[in-house]
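In response to the reviewer comment on reproducibility (Comment 2.3), we provide here a single inverse folding case reported in full, input and output, so that an independent group could reproduce the run without further information from us. The structure tokens appear first.
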């Protein structure tokens, strides 16, 4: 197995905060490859893999899929892609995800983009999305928020303590949020 040196940016924030939307914009402007952990897990369900039913049940309950499953999918996606710059969207979601990814891959993120948005606005966006996601119903949304507050926010706090977090006000329009995102990716001239 040949190890290539890769740059990874973690894109974190609550359910419906706009991670996927902004990652699509970043790909267009800055040449990253977008890897959504949630999309990889949903593709795994569709492919009829042996883990599919377990993953489907976890997502329906808003629970975090075991690290080894998600990390394997992320690693495979990075190995299959010739790019060396990746946006990892929606992962790591808990302390165990974070520690396992670092020890298994040896990769530390360059920085973390944190989309900060009120719960009220996130619920509104998810209920408007209408893409048939099995977790986009109010019962599951409540569970996703609880897991986010209890398990995912501490990961963001961890990276904040290491000075790696760029907080973005994600409450604004898609265009305004992207202006703030661009400023993070554009190297500034001293
Ligand atoms: N929208 C976006 N930006 C907007 C803006 N500025 N103004 C107005 N509208 C805006 O956006 C959501 C909706 O809002 C869209 O309709 C968009 O047009 C609009 P989107 O960009 O899709 O937000 P995103 O943050 O990506 O929301 P998503 O629902 O994907 O976030 P989640 O973190 O909940 O979902 P994810 O797919 O990452 O995970 C789903 C589940 O998978 C988890 O609950 C968990 O069970 C499982 N999972 C794991 O177990 N492990 C993992 O590592 C990852 C996932
Ligand atoms: Mg998403």
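Designed residues, in position order:
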């Amino acid at each position: 197995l040949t190890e290539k040196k890769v740059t990874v940016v973690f894109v974190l924030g609550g359910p419906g905060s706009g991670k996927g939307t902004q990652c699509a914009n970043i790909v267009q402007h800055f040449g990253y490859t977008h890897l959504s952990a949630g999309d990889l897990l949903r593709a795994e369900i569709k492919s009829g893999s042996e883990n599919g039913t377990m993953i489907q049940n976890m997502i329906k309950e808003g629970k975090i899929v075991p690290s080894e499953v998600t990390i394997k999918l992320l690693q495979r996606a990075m190995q299959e892609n010739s790019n060396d710059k990746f946006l990892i969207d929606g992962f790591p979601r808990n302390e165990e995800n974070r520690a396992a990814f670092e020890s298994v891959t040896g990769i530390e993120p360059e920085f973390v983009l944190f989309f900060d948005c009120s719960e009220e606005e996130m619920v509104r966006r998810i209920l408007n999305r209408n893409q048939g996601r099995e977790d986009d119903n109010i019962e599951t949304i409540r569970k996703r928020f609880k897991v986010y507050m209890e398990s995912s926010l501490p990961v963001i706090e961890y990276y904040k303590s290491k000075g790696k977090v760029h907080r973005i006000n994600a409450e604004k329009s898609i265009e305004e949020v992207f202006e703030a995102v661009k400023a993070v990716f554009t190297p500034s001239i001293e």
